[in-house]
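Input C-alpha cells:
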C-alpha cells in the first residue's frame, strides 16, 4: 500500500505537469499569431484521437455470437448519432457508455 504522503506528492506532480502543459502555449505564443501548422494540428488531432479510441474499443470484438458484438455496435451507433445531433463529446461518450453497460448487463 502506498503511504498517504507519497500519494499526495504523486497527485501534486500530476497537477503541476497538467497545468504546465495547459499553460505552455500561452507562454510560447503570447499574443503572437499561432503558426498555421499548429492550427492545422489542433483541428485534426481531436478527430485522430477519437478514431484511435474507436479502433481501440472495437479491436477485440468477437463475431461468433450476437451478444458479443451487438452491444458494441449498437452503442457505437448511439454515440455517432448523438454526437452528430448534439455535437457534445461529453454527452456522447457518457450516453454511449451507459447504453453499452445497460445492453451488456440487462439485455445480452
Amino acid at each position: 500500500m502506498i503511504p498517504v504522503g507519497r500519494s499526495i506528492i504523486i497527485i501534486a506532480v500530476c497537477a503541476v505537469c497538467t497545468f504546465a502543459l495547459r499553460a505552455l502555449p500561452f507562454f510560447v505564443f503570447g499574443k503572437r499569431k499561432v503558426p498555421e501548422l499548429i492550427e492545422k494540428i489542433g483541428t485534426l488531432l481531436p478527430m485522430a484521437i477519437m478514431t484511435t479510441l474507436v479502433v481501440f474499443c472495437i479491436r477485440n470484438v468477437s463475431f461468433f455470437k450476437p451478444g458479443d458484438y451487438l452491444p458494441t455496435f449498437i452503442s457505437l451507433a448511439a454515440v455517432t448519432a448523438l454526437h452528430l445531433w448534439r455535437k457534445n463529446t461529453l454527452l456522447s461518450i457518457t450516453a454511449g457508455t451507459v447504453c453499452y453497460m445497460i445492453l451488456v448487463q440487462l439485455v445480452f
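Residues 1-32 form one domain. The chain has two domains: 1-32, 36-107.
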